[in-house]
Amino acid sequence: MSQHSSLRIDPTQQGHRNVLKRHERVQRLIDLERWKDRQSAFGLPKVKSLKIKVKKVKAEKAEGQMPQAAAPPGAAPAPAPPAAAEKKKQVPPPKK
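^ thats the sequence. predicted structure below, dont judge the formating
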């Protein structure tokens, strides 16, 4: 018998959980070296569960452009891209 698609758990769409199960909290306490041997599993201390986001590097910088700080000495500074200058000119002034 097959399982209905709405009952399946997709690990890619599983969100971050703030509340951990008891065995997950014990494992986290062991990792943090806060778990004492023969300690009761009831009344456990609170454990933070943080979700870490990684920022993606823009494609322009990843293509191999060197930042000005890392440019070799004596090299001429790179001119600003013209598209950025045009965008600044097109922005209308704020309404009062």
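Residues 22-31 form the longest helix (10 residues).
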